[in-house]
Amino acid sequence: MKIAVIGAGYVGLVSGACLAQFGFDVFCVDHDAAKVEALNAGRVPIHEAGLGKLIHDNARAGRLHFTMDLKAAVSKAEAVFIAVSTPTRRGDDAADLAYVHQAASQIAAALDGYSVIITKSTVPVGTARKIKAQITAERPDADFDVAANPEFLREGSAVDDFLKPDRVVIGTEKKRAQEVLRKIYQPIAMTGAPLIFTDFESAELIKYAANGYLAMRLAFINQLADLCEEVGGDIAVVAKGIGHDKRIGHHYLQPGPGFGGSCFPKDTKALAVTAREAGAPFSLIEAVVKANDKRKLDLSTRVTRMLGGSVADKRIAVLGLAFKADTDDMRDAPALDLIPALTAAKAQVVAYDPVVKPNGVSAFEGVEWAKSAYAAAKGADAVILLTEWNEFRGLDLAKLAKSMRAAVMIDLRNLYSPTDIAKTPFAYHSIGRQAMGPSSN
Ligand code: UDX
């Protein structure tokens, strides 16, 4: 089967490479000439575990192609995935569908033989139906169906999530389209994952509902952590205590600096807009958006309070910039709120991340870049753990403390336990637990 994937971004690349791995003949299309050239030369533009090898192996086997020629890619393709980005629209926080409709138009012009056009990008409820109407209007003669097939990939484990998902959601209207999708996902069905066939609207809503619900858990645990800081109690124990209740479970209960990334912030905002426009305001999700935005904006106040009321002229090492570990993605990362606020308050920030490169992020103007956690901490008045990279979990704390001007650690990911810290000279601040001073050790 020939498959076209429009958009060689995060979702398109992972989906394209995994579909090629199933043995399909996959054409990934992108309008960015430099990206296509890099991919054809074997260079993968994103940091994602296992993706490089998958792309390399399948390209070499002749099953995975990168091209700018959308017409040739779509022609005679039985399935065409739309995997372009749907960023937050400036002004109203809705999902911007300009790229989706542009892709649909180009696909319409290129259709040649029966194709199922599948939305893989996260799109608001109603989009599949709109695409169907758009293509019908632009190409009344075309033989096609539409399907809504949202992805649930987490950055850092996207390849695994694609190959071994909890479920695959497919919204279609026609049996013929269902059969094409069934064939595509047969290798996944064989692993025991359910294929959920449903209508367009349910499929589209499932994606927003899943992300909205998970984001809501995070907002909940983060505010509960704030409460622990005020009234006592240890959020890790509280989370464990509620998580053992089978109706709740343990996942997505790790408190932190606020959620970021390419999905939760964007999708919660878009869901709130959709619900408002539909006359069914989702006040719960609106509260999640507000709480999380505020949490990130307040990070510098939190840090300043922990550092005794001022950060001016303090040298602060920030360890980890990516929105979470195992990715180089900076989209909506807490670092983008925290670091500019610290530099504005005249702190001297020195940053280190295992994969994020300093170039080009204007929020990081004036920041010094270090090549390791230890180099960043040298001479610092405090070290902030901002991303949960594994390499920060096993730091030699005695060595780190010794090289600092003041041994203060602000652990915004709770990577260390109070017992670990009690053996060190660090004054320690974390999320949802009481601060520990060296004197109380
Ligand atoms: C998410 C969804 O999980 C995925 O299904 C969807 O397709 C895209 O959005 P992703 O953004 O890659 O994936 O990351 P995820 O691991 O879900 O984390 C999202 C945010 O929540 C990050 O900022 C992370 O640091 C934060 N998080 C996650 C916590 O703070 N605590 C947790 O317990 C889990």
Q: Can you offer a commentary on this structure?
A:
With 441 residues, the protein is of the alpha/beta class. It has three domains: 2-198, NAD(P)-binding Rossmann-like Domain (Rossmann fold, 3-Layer(aba) Sandwich), CATH 3.40.50.720; 208-296, Orthogonal Bundle (N-(1-d-carboxylethyl)-l-norvaline Dehydrogenase, domain 2); 298-440, Rossmann fold (3-Layer(aba) Sandwich), CATH 3.40.50.720. The protein is 42% helix and 14% strand. The chain contains 17 helices and 14 strands. The protein has helices at residues 10-21, 33-40, 51-60, 70-74, 98-110, 127-138, 158-163, 175-189, 200-231, 235-243, 264-277, 283-297, 299-306, 335-344, 373-377, 397-403, 418-422, and strands spanning 2-6, 25-29, 64-67, 79-82, 115-119, 144-148, 168-172, 195-198, 315-319, 348-352, 368-369, 382-385, 408-411, 427-430. Strands 3-2-1-4-5-6-7-8 form an eight-stranded mixed sheet, with helices on both faces. Strand 4 (79-82), helix 5 and strand 5 (115-119) form a beta-alpha-beta unit. The chain is elongated, with a radius of gyration of 24 Å.
